[in-house]
Specification:
Elements lengths: L10 H12 L10 H5 L11 H8 L3 H5 L3 H4 L5 H5 L6 H16 L3 H7 L5 H29 L25 H36 L10 H17 L1 H5 L7 H26 L12 H26 L8 H25 L3 H20 L8 H14 L4
Helix pairs in contact: 1-7, 3-7, 9-16, 10-16, 10-17, 11-17, 13-14, 14-15, 15-16
Bound molecules: iron/sulfur cluster (2 copies).
One iron/sulfur cluster binds next to helix 6 and helix 7.
Amino acid sequence: MTEKYLAQPDLDFIAQVRGLGGETLKKCYQCATCSVACPIAPEDSPFPRKEMIAASWGLKDKLICSGDIWLCHECGDCSDLCPRGAAPGDVLSAIRSVAITEYARPKALANAVTDPKKLPFLLGIPAIWFAILAFITMTAGETMTKIFEFIPFFDWAQHEGEHVIAQADFFSTWFVDLTFVPTATAVAIIFFLSLKNFLNDIHENAVLEGKTDKTTLNYKEFFQALIRVIPTILRHDKFNECESNKDRATPHMMVLFSFIGLFIVTAIFFIVLYVFQTPGPYSQLNPVKWLANISGVALVIGSGLMIKNRLDKKEEQLTYYKDWFILGVVFALGLTGMLTEMTRLAHLEYISYFFYYLHLIAIFNLFAFLPFSKMAHLVYRLTAMTYAEYSNRK
Ligand code: SF4
Ligand code: SF4
């Protein structure tokens, strides 16, 4: 006998999805063209038709605990072919935004990132904080050095004697790191807790829906699946299976690799400063500096192309505040980083400090709000793809 399921519609969820870019969801008349059109949906229980039904019924719990919403790469093929203009690709994107907000804590911060009215706060708080740091660095550097002289290599005036433009003379590296190290730690903890819940939920959901016969989650096998999935992600194989937005693959790849490059650069210079006690600025002939410059240029071009693609496809693929927020932050991060470096090399001291100030605000917006912004898709999609590989969902 068919199992009975008592649907409990969550009207707030429907409103949330519609407000985040899925306002077309009620247009769906369940023809299933989208599931047939999707080049990457698994044969067994394909998406996005079933998600369209669940969304229009307001089945929030069923949807945000589903790994399938993350397997979608937002290519738009299904939206192009939908005979009713229900834009299933956009609806799935909106559901993913709700899922990010749902799993992340604190929720107030998660809601703030999707609310354009809160943008002045998101930009204003780091702007004030870094202005205070600059003021203290410029006016109380020597006093601070005396107070903290018990720390072996604590020095605010690192470049006395020779005139080298160093951002540390305007924003003490100590203060900058004392801002970003705790921020990065908090972000890592938030991600760990969110992903732990997310993984357990998608596993329970998969068991319930019969998508896997592995009733207990085996972390060793899950880790092995992760190793197998990483090359697929780096090569952007799934992006290349799509048709409508195939041109997104190259810019997306540029942005991903530039972040990997900049992460390596930051880690190396952090060790060079705190372990080998050698402060910057470092020579342009240094290979790590090459990597930084190449990654910076790739970030500007990649995110610039992503913005151009969105503007060109204004009619077919609508872009919402959550998309513009993260695109804007990533582009600003790359651009202000490159301008800081170029003006420093051109000896435009205070202009360079100003761009560095904007750069710090962009870095803060990217990292502090990482678990709440669209950028969180990096880890949620990685987890969902790994789970699909682990559960042998082809
Ligand atoms: S979203 Fe469009 S293509 Fe998909 S089932 Fe609904 S009406 Fe059909
Ligand atoms: S947007 Fe692309 S990947 Fe996502 S469901 Fe539609 S066709 Fe599939």
